[in-house]
Amino acid sequence: MQANQNNKVVSAVLFDLDGTLLDSAPDLVATLNRLRANRGLSAMPVEDLRHFVSRGAVGLIKAGMPPCDDETLARWRLEFLQYYEENSFVHSRPFDGVEPVLAKLGEQGVPWGIVTNKMEYLSLPILQKTGWHASAAAVVCGDTTANSKPHPEPVLAACEMLGEKPENTLMVGDDIRDIEAGNRAGCHTAFALYGYADSAIQSEFLNGTTMLKQPEELLGLVNMTGSGS
Question: Does some domain include residue 81?
């Protein structure tokens, strides 16, 4: 599925974090396996759980732990987040091709930012370690605005930080929530198939969305002559 997008009008880019810029599955699954080990359960392979990583701690716990009631789920989530906070950048690394793409955007004067549902206290240390916090023109986390994706508010807030109109901005993500948020904000959208998404996923929100097999493919969608604002 290929979007009918005019690359002359796309002058800024917004990225989801986990599964789009960052391959964080090794550390997130390791955290889940710590939770399992504490209950005498064997470790699960990263590949079995990659597709659940973009669903956050609760989604990953539901996929990798036995069924439980809401009280137990809340307790497991707290334990999960406490361990992950201290172990969020052990094996996590940018996806192949991401760093050259970000460098190219910077060289060409194309502003870019990050819109993630991950909370600030978890996101900002990772962004400091990758160096992205210094180079991103906008960072919107799960608790930066009143609503998180798929609500359009965080995407609109990021566009405002970039000084770009939504109709001139490309939102890139690997989860339907990213695409829905981008669409509802009035942005162009691109779906990162190289991330944690199920390549067979179907949704009305993917209509008109460019499918990216590699990060560098998004450069063909962007006006590389600098900011259009």
Answer: yes
